[in-house]
Amino acid sequence: MANLGKIGIWRRRFDGTDDLDRIEAAGYSAVWVGASPSVEQARPFLEATSSMTVATGILNVWQHDPSAVAAAHAETTAAFPGRFILGLGIGHPEATAEYRSPLATMRDFLAALDAAPVPVPRGERVLAALGPKMLALAAERAGGAHTYFVTPQHTSAARAALGPDALLAPEVAVVVEPDAETARGHARAYAKTYLGLTNYTANLQRFGYTPDDIAGGGSDRLIDAVIPHGSAATVAEAVRAHLDAGADHVALQPLGHGPSPVADLEAIAKALG
Q1: Rounded-to-integer distance, Cα 264 and Cα 87, Å
Q2: Which of 50, 123, 161, 266 has CA 20 to 30 A from 5's CA?
Q3: Which residues form the domain of 266?
Q4: Closest to 53 in 3D by CA, of 251, 273, 264, 270
């Protein structure tokens, strides 16, 4: 598998690449391209950087033909050897009209990638996974898992489910902002979407959060655990908590200072040393 390093960034595909050279120079070694990208939509991120690993975070399997994905993967890895990871996900029932049998659908998609004229190697693909069954599939049929909107407690449980060798790469949204209420405002604006999706709310409830925690934009307890905030040093400690819990790599998504908060990323990298 391509080398992700310890810290990367998570960025929506439409938020651009103009500042990636500065982010790369700050010490970030990977970028996860979000908002359901295709392989082709991840390519500009490879072209804009010299050494960063680029991963789709995630390609939605309902929206793509696996044979076309395998062909695009082969073309991309030939052009950028050792720098691309295919992140795959099943999406959300609220966003997919044909959503059914998610585990079986993912198994079928992976089997089709294996059967393509140029297969996608197991070690070059990861699965979006939250619950035990998808985590088990990630360990069995992929190089590991990319988790999202999770606490360090989930990271610890995911590591136990995946075993010691599979990649575990959580996304962690953060707010570099010393005023707690201002930071929570930014965090709640971001969390609103995810607190309306059953995949995420069911996962939070597995770890002790109640419907009352989820309601009303999220309790302070939930918001503070899922979206760490404070000084850059405080945020860096939260990143270390995921690494200490078993993450191999953390993909940071800074909130609150526009779509490209490079200064926040630089400050966090400096605090991480």
Answers
A1: 26
A2: 161
A3: 7-272
A4: 251
| Strand, coil or helix: 57 | coil
Tens of pLDDT, residue by residue over 171-206, are 999 999 999 999 999 999 999 999 999 999 999 999
The label of the residue with tokens 């819990």 reads: 245
Q: What is the pTM of this model?
A: 0.97
Q: Using an 8 Å Cβ cutoff, are 150 and 130 in contact?
A: yes
Which whole-number Å values give the CA distances from 183 to 21, 46, 176, 190, 235, in the listed order? 27, 32, 8, 11, 12
Task: Record the tokens describing residue 34, joined without a space.
Answer: 């979000």
Number of domains the chain is built from: 1
Residue 239 lies in a domain: yes
Q: Is 235 exposed, middle or buried (0-12, 13-18, 19+ CB in 10 A)?
A: buried
Cis geometry, peptide bond prior to residue 58 (ω within 30 degrees of 0):
yes
Asked whether 11 and 254 are in contact (CB, 8 A), the reply is no
Q: Please report, for the domain that includes residue 212, its CATH number.
A: 3.20.20.30
Residue 1 lies in a domain: no
